[in-house]
């Protein structure tokens, strides 16, 4: 049964209790050595916490830490404190006196274990105490709550002693069945990692007291029939059930666990790459061997049975490293192997380029030196890694490439693994998608995105001094470059830049996002041909820093379940530009007037640099310049807003020497007004004026459109287009000043016809807003209001009546539209206009107006066929051809007294042949009316 002290019990040959006792003794010997290594890496106060933990769960005393009440479960199975433990307790509380309980008291705390990096080469001053508190399955809920409260108090007490402790209540029965209520380690991703968690527990756990694991006593080659083996041990009383804890076997691992563990380590690797990539690689090794994987814990157990108890070789991190090293070597993945070794070196954190802190080398240093010798590393590599806390941009960018390659490879490996095995898992859909988006947000490059280079690589990238230079690139285009140090213009040509950028603001945002520039960094400026000053540069950096504080808030999964949307937006207006020339300073009155109109009419906005932090924690830079930076920026800003949800925090800054703050306020007002309109459920439009150009934004959430209109006639033509939906127009408060159009558009009402008229000497301008607020305008010779308005009223009434007659009677009553009249008159206060509501004109039967009806129909040749009826006398193009309008003009002139030549008006128009029943909009009738009247009056004037 033994060979070189190897123990190989075989169930069918019988089991010797002495052999089982020897095996238990080997595990406890190894356990004691690991516990001692754990203590060696702790301060004296931390050692005291570790020493007292078993006692604090064994007794329930008011003067000891963690006391809740006399009903709190206490009593650690089989535990009796030694003299060192009691002495430590009395140092903590001199009045404490331990009194053993006589008889066989109930001991509900079945076992205490540490797990994780403690006692391993990876333990450091910051390592947590992850403590499994195994308890009786029969504890009622109230006592469990008290025990949890005790754990919370012990965690708080340990923190006062310099130890970060986490306690996890474990019901061994439920755990074996795969049920648990909480995460069991700080690296645990939930219930999807039962077997992998158990594997980690078996190979890293340090027993502190209570029952010992039954798994110790089952040989690795019997793992496949673990249940039968355990039953034999217990039923035949080779092992007493009150001496052991059964957490289950590792005979097989469901493939979904590899996926869950891999996703979790990828998630953690984004911010803490070195530790997590090490574990991610181990998951890859396991998954690549599925279904024939052999867990490291089984190798660990086999080594104990073989009496190979060398601590260094059984160190969980070293064992894991050896397994991954073998895997990568067979695959010839030399770059990944180099990254693995860097991860392990940095995790061990024993700088070999420096002499040991004590005269004697620690066991960790000796172990690391042996490893590094096998790797053929030299002093240069030690020095480079040991200086990681001083790494700056160039070294971090180089390391980022290797880390991003590994993250990307890991995600693709897991994706392919899940697809190949068709894994159905609770984490497969939602969490896999969320992680993909998290990786995309962290490492994916795209236009305008400010790249984050420091993925937990170095603690501080801030430079003491930098030089910012504007120059020209290889294509002779303007560019900006950032150099290390404070360089003169002559020195710059001898150095390569840290970073180049076509624009200034993205470069400054990159510096801030990555911590390259902080409040202590001195930046020397060589502005080149730009107008950037040191004062403006300082202000830019200050505002970027205040708008986007670093580090950004943690990104919640919920944010990644929906599309990214803006959270904070900073608009930087006229960076390095001043539209109000300092060579020609304006007077106070001129400056006030210019700013009052300047955002739009005088085009004081020459450029806008937009920085957007979105809900995925991405920082995006966009620059707007050229003919229309303001409306283009506004369009994109509104377009990016979510249809529903919170609006982003918008800040606008301008550092122009001439009234930059006032200009920023004006831009902010424009954006605020447009955003309020977009929030209105009714679809509307927003009109801006830049000099003599007009910009109309269709405010449809998710589909904002920008139309540029070159002049007033083009604007009027656009406003007159039929659109068959109510689309009110909000005019920017300083657009269209000096005209009555802003006043008219502000009066728009749905489902009615509004007539506005303005009289200027012998001319009148008539404007109509139809039922959908489409606009029609015409200039006419003015005689009096009656002759100006009555023909139009007749026409609008006829069109409205014709439309309602095509509906059922009850619907027609509801569809009837009011016709409202307004007169526009000059304001008595200033040079603006006012609107007066006027009654509709009253018709007098004796008025010399004739009904002229027109019917327009399509022809086969694509031209419209027109038929006119004057006092019910038909005049058809079929009969008169091109002389149609002359014939009608002759007829009208013959009917007038004295042959007066005043204009003719169409009073009724039928377009149903062109547009179908009920489809023609009033503005379309008015446009046809204008064309027909022009032809008719031209013929009349020619007679």
TrEMBL record:
GO BP: any one term: cAMP biosynthetic process
InterPro entries named among the record's database cross-references: Adenylate_cyclase_1, Adenylate_cyclase_1_N
Domain annotation Adenylate cyclase class-I N-terminal: ranges: 20-216
Pfam families cross-referenced by the UniProt entry: Adenyl_cycl_N, Adenylate_cycl
Domain of life: Bacteria
GO terms, molecular function: adenylate cyclase activity
PANTHER family named in the record: ADENYLATE CYCLASE
Protein name as catalogued: Class I adenylate cyclase
Species in which this protein is naturally found: Stutzerimonas zhaodongensis
């Amino acid at each position: 049964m033994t060979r070189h002290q190897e123990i190989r019990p075989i169930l069918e040959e019988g089991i010797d209790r002495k052999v089982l006792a020897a095996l238990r003794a080997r595990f406890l010997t190894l356990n004691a050595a690991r516990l001692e290594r754990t203590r060696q890496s702790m301060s004296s106060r931390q050692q005291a916490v570790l020493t007292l933990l078993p006692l604090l769960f064994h007794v329930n005393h008011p003067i000891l830490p963690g006391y809740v009440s006399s009903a709190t479960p206490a009593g650690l199975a089989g535990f009796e404190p030694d003299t060192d433990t009691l002495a430590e307790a009395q140092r903590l509380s001199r009045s404490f006196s331990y009194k053993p309980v006589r008889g066989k008291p109930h001991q509900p705390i079945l076992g205490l274990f540490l797990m994780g990096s403690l006692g391993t080469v990876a333990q450091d001053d910051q390592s947590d105490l992850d403590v499994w508190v195994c308890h009786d399955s029969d504890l009622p809920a109230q006592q469990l709550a008290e025990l949890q409260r005790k754990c919370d108090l012990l965690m708080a007490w340990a923190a006062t002693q310099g130890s970060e402790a986490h306690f996890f209540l474990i019901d061994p029965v439920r755990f074996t069945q795969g049920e648990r209520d909480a995460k069991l380690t700080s690296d645990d991703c939930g219930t999807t990692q039962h077997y992998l968690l158990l594997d980690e527990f078996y190979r890293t756990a340090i027993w502190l007291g209570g029952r010992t694991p039954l798994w110790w006593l089952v040989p690795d080659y019997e793992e496949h029939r673990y249940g039968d083996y355990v039953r034999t041990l217990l039923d035949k009383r080779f092992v007493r059930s009150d001496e052991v804890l059964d957490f289950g076997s590792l005979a097989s691992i469901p493939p979904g666990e590899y996926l869950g563990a891999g996703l979790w380590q990828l998630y953690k690797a984004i911010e803490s790459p070195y530790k997590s990539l090490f574990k991610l690689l181990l998951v890859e090794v396991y998954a690549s061997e599925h279904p024939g994987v052999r867990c490291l814990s089984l190798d660990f157990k086999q080594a104990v049975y073989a009496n190979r108890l060398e601590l260094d070789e059984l160190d969980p991190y070293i064992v894991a490293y050896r397994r991954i090293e073998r895997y990568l070597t067979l695959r010839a993945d030399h770059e990944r192997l180099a990254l693995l070794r860097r991860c392990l070196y940095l995790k061990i954190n024993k700088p070999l380029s420096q002499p040991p802190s004590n005269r004697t080398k620690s066991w960790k240093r000796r172990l690391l030196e042996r490893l590094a010798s096998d790797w053929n590393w030299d002093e240069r590599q030690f020095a480079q890694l040991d200086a990681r806390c001083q790494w700056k941009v160039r070294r971090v960018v180089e390391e980022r490439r290797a880390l991003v390659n590994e993250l990307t490879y890991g995600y693709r490996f897991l994706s392919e693994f899940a697809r190949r095995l068709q894994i159905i898992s609770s984490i497969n859909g939602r969490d896999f998608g969320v992680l993909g988006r998290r990786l995309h947000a962290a490492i994916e490059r795209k236009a305008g995105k400010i790249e984050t280079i420091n993925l937990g690589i170095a603690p501080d990238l801030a430079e003491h001094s930098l030089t910012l230079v504007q120059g020209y690139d290889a294509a002779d285009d303007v560019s900006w470059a950032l150099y290390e140090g404070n360089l003169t213009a002559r020195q710059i040509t001898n150095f390569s830049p840290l970073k180049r950028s076509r624009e200034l603001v993205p470069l400054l945002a990159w510096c801030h996002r990555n911590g390259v520039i902080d409040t202590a960094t001195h930046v020397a400026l060589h502005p080149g041909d730009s107008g950037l000053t040191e004062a403006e540069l300082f202000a830019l950096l200050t505002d970027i820093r205040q708008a986007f504080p670093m580090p950004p808030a943690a990104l919640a999964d919920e944010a990644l379940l929906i599309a990214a949307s803006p959270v904070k937006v900073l608009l930087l207006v006229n960076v390095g530009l001043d539209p109000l020339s300092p060579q020609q300073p304006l007077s106070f009155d001129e400056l006030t007037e210019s700013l009052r109109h300047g955002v739009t009419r005088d085009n004081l906005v020459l450029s806008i640099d937009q920085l957007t932090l979105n809900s995925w924690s991405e920082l995006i830079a966009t620059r707007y310049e050229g003919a229309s930076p303001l409306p283009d920026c506004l369009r994109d800003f509104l377009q990016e807003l979510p249809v529903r949800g919170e609006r982003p925090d918008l800040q606008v800054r301008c550092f122009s020497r001439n009234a930059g703050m006032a200009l920023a306020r004006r831009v902010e007002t424009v954006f605020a007004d447009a955003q309020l309109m977009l929030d209105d459920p009714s679809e509307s439009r927003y009109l801006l004026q830049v000099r003599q150009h007009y910009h109309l934004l269709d405010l449809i959430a998710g589909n904002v459109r920008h139309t540029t209109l070159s002049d007033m006639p083009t604007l009027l033509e656009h406003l007159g287009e039929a659109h068959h939906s109510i689309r009110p127009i909000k005019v920017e408060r300083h657009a269209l000043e000096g005209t009555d159009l802003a006043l008219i558009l502000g009066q728009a009402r749905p489902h009615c016809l509004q007539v506005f008229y303005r009289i200027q000497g012998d001319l009148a301008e008539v404007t109509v807003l139809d039922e959908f607020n489409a606009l029609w305008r015409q200039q006419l010779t003015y005689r009096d209001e009656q002759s100006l308005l009555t023909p139009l009223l007749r026409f609008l009434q006829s069109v409205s009546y014709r439309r309602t007659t095509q509906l059922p009677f009850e619907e027609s009553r509801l569809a009837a539209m009011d016709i409202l009249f307004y007169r526009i008159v000059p304001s008595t206060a200033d040079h603006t206009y006012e609107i007066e509501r006027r009654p509709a004109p009253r018709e007098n039967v004796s008025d010399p107006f004739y009904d002229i009806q027109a019917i327009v129909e399509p022809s086969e040749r694509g031209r419209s066929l027109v038929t006119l009826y004057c006092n019910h006398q038909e005049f058809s193009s079929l009969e008169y051809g091109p002389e149609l309008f002359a014939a009608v003009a002759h007829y009208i002139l013959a009917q007038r007294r004295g042959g007066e030549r005043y204009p003719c008006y169409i009073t009724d128009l039928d377009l149903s042949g062109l547009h179908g029943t009920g489809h023609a909009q009033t503005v379309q009738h008015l446009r046809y009316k204008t064309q027909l009247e022009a032809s008719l009056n031209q013929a009349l004037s020619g007679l």
